[in-house]
Amino acid sequence: MEHKTPEARVIAVCTSEKRGTKKTPVGEGFLKKNFGLEGDAHAKSDSHRQVSLLAYESMKKMEKKGFKPAPGIFAENITTKGIDLLTLKPGSRISIGGEAILEITQLGKICHTKCEIFKLVGECVMPTEGIFARVVKNGKIQNKDQIHIIQIGADQ
Predict the structure, then answer these.
(1) Taking Cα atoms as reference points, which of 37, 52, 60 lies closest to residue 85?
(2) How far apart are CA 122 and CA 108, in angstroms?
(3) Which of 45, 75, 89, 140 is deepest in the core (most CB within 10 A)?
(4) Are strands 100-107 and 9-15 parallel, antiparallel or unpaired?
(5) How far is CA 135 from CA 9, 57, 69, 116, 118, in A?
(6) Given this model, what pLDDT does residue 108 score?
(7) Do 151 and 91 contact (CB within 8 A), yes or no?
(8) Is pTM beyond 0.85 here?
(9) What's the confidence (pLDDT) of residue 156?
């Protein structure tokens, strides 16, 4: 059952060549099944965290600390707007751009090493508000693509 959320969209598609660094907005990309976002250092077939997503609304919380949010700065692959990512439990599926399908695998993460943002500001929203997914269907994605919830995962 697809949940229409017309305001939910991609603000930025971002990649990086190295892990542990901020990502650069690239405008578009290709999500490859069981791999991730092509050209990104985190893309890996044996990972349950192939793609990372962070809501722009979460990034805005850092403004109170004097930090100007920008897509990719928190090392997310996809910056979203208009969708409450934290309501997507593991097992939830979303479509992006009409072709690609992601399955949510993890909410938040444990930071074993402090990222560039944490070192600069003393806090980072990715561990508590970022989500991770694996690619279950190939597809090209780009800025302004709509995001639709196609399946809600069960609480685990």
Answers:
(1) 52
(2) 17
(3) 75
(4) unpaired
(5) 18, 24, 26, 27, 28
(6) 77
(7) yes
(8) yes
(9) 47
Taking residue 39's Cβ as centre, other Cβ atoms within 10 Å add up to: 12
Dist CA 33 CA 17 (whole Å): 20
pLDDT at 105: 95
Place of tokens 């060549």: 17
Secondary structure in 3-state letters for the chain: CCECCCCCEEEEEEECCCCCCCCEECCEEEEECCCEECCCCCCCCCCCCCEEEEEHHHHHHHHHHCCCCCCCCCCCCEEEECCCHHHCCCCCEEEECCCEEEEEEEECCCCCCCCHHHHHHCCCCHHHHCEEEEEEECEEEECCCEEEEEECCCCC
Please identify every stretch of the chain with a pLDDT value under 50, giving residue numbers as ranges: 1, 156
Q: Residues 56, 125: contact at Cβ < 8 Å?
A: no
Q: What is the pLDDT of residue 1?
A: 47
Taking only the tens place, the pLDDT of each residue in 89-105 is 999 999 999 899 999 99
Domains of the chain as residue ranges with CATH: 9-151 (2.40.33.20)
Question: In 10 A of CB 97, how many CB atoms?
Answer: 19
